Amino acid sequence: MTGAEAATKSAEEKIAEKGLPVDETYSPAPEVLRGSYVYSEEMFNEMYQRSLDDPDAFWTEMSRQIDWIRPYSQVHYENFTNGDVRWFLNGKLNACENCVDRWAATYPSRPAILWEGDEPGTDKVITYKELLDNVCRMSNMLLSLGVKKGDRVTIYMPMIPELPMMMLACARI
Question: Has residue 21 got a pLDDT over 90?
């Protein structure tokens, strides 16, 4: 098989060649479902249909789960002729505050990151408080180096817990 032939194979074909099932689904354990925001396929389908039928109402409802620095004035704007689609016009939020701070304030000792290394036994559990502390430290380090809002930061790191921490530190600025 040539490289071009291998590149044109679908993911399903590649999985089937290895003798692995392609069409199996695995349902989460009932205790996991009970704590989930979307706990059934029916609920997902209902939410999806609402998002299609009345996107403004649906996304207005969803946006109430986010802490806004400045509320948006319009849910969305679309001009497909010009390729211009915008969401939550004039709204302002801080992704880091929504992903970390609000959860650290409410659930400081809950796991925020469960990391499994490549080697057995190299796992880490990082709580929301630990995550917030590390993100703030990294953000302050970036600020001390002169990084400011609007700057582009390149992150070249392996898949370790510090990678999402650094991404959140950038979002914090």
Answer: no
CA pair distance 72, 119, nearest whole angstrom? 46
Residue 72, pLDDT above cutoff 70: yes
pLDDT single digits (tens) 138-156: 999 999 999 999 999 999 9
In angstroms, the CA 93 to CA 24 distance is: 39
Helix (H) or strand (E) holding 114: strand 111-116
Q: Angle 162-172/128-144 helices, nearest 10 degrees?
A: 60
Taking the C-alpha atoms of residue 19 and residue 27, their distance in angstroms, rounded to an integer, is: 21
Tokens 């205790």 label which residue? 31
Rounded to the nearest 5 degrees, what angle is found at the Cα of 51, between the Cα atoms of 48 and 56? Answer: 165
State the alpha helices, DSSP H only, in the chain.
3-8, 11-17, 30-34, 41-53, 55-63, 95-96, 102-106, 128-144, 162-172
CA atoms within 13 A on the CB side of 162: 7
Where are the domains positioned within the chain?
A: 38-93, 94-173
What tokens were used for 128? Answer: 């929301």
